[in-house]
């Protein structure tokens, strides 16, 4: 028996990660992106698959490997600790896909030296940071590839578009930094035809027009996350940064019935481990937030907020057993959740429970707990084993 099936047997709750679905989603996104290209640009398009936050909970290393095998041009991370972990793994697998780190540079020189030893694409959001990175690169006799982030309306990080021109002019003077890319980030791209997103595209395009005419030609120009790929494809941009779509979801559950062809990658599952007959009028779980309205049977499932299954599903969520929905009753505990299986239950001990996945999309769980699919999958904790299926190697 392999190590992985042992894991399944030891833990009743686990997340099955379908790598074939991941690849399917990658190719859907790629197709959408290439559709928007003029003939001139078709061979000059780059996909940076976003694998930050442990690939939104799906397991960064294995997902990155699969995406690299599918042909992603870059792998996108949010900070340098993720980037270093990923880099070490890719080396062991002899994969040389470039890591693009969208996070800010570390402030301590020792850490800058560690990252300057790598061949990442480094994001620049501050001229002083760029100067320090440049001096570290110089001391190593290296030239590092950097991408400049410009803020066109998100107001999070990046050079404000109004002052970015002067900043870029300064950065271009630094001889040990090679400015290969420029990018911005959408605030509302997931809402089809949203005016603010259109304004961002136009502002960034106007800025690029001027900066490229006077200052520098950028090899990589980008603004699109998943929402951008679906709603704001524009041939000016030749690089995309999809995240959530790779894992099978459209970013906004209000629009989730849009036919995307995306397939959920994570199937979060457990088993029924205990069944109890409970008379009418009895309370279930902590805080006595639920009382049975009839004589019924209650099934207990060994999963809870300690696994990242949201406590906000208390008295609201549902699970699927043999294609049937069952209501969560009472407070979701750290390690247990209870469901009402009715007075004449068809459910038995050891039956498989679908918490979410292909049979029950994360959108539903996200809606019940007042959040978005991103947060649900990213929050699944390390206690839950990730079992990879349909690997391409
Ligand atoms: C800068 C940046 N680019 C791309 C992405 C990917 O976004 P999405 O998962 O909506 O495709 C993110 C995710 O938050 C991001 O912060």
Describe, in plain words, how this protein is organized in 3D.
By secondary structure, the protein is an alpha/beta fold. The chain folds into 2 domains: 19-247, TIM Barrel, CATH 3.20.20; 266-389, Lyase, Ornithine Decarboxylase, Chain A, domain 1, CATH 2.40.37. It has 12 helices and 20 strands. The protein has helices at residues 3-10, 19-35, 52-56, 60-70, 80-92, 109-116, 127-139, 164-171, 195-214, 226-231, 362-368, 373-378, and strands spanning 14-18, 46-50, 74-77, 98-101, 121-124, 144-151, 159-160, 177-183, 220-224, 239-240, 266-271, 274-278, 283-284, 290-291, 296-301, 318-321, 324-327, 337-340, 352-356, 386-389. The strands form 5 sheets. Strands 2-3-4-5-6-8-9-10 form an 8-stranded parallel β-barrel, surrounded by 5 helices. Strands 19-11-1-20 form a 4-stranded mixed beta sheet. Helix 7 (127-139) links the parallel strand 5 and strand 6. The protein is elongated and about 75 Å long. The protein starts with a helix and ends with a strand. It binds pyridoxal-5'-phosphate.
Characteristic terms for this protein:
single chain, 393 residues, alpha/beta, TIM Barrel, Lyase, Ornithine Decarboxylase, Chain A, domain 1, 8-stranded parallel barrel, 4-stranded mixed β-sheet, 31% helix, binds pyridoxal-5'-phosphate
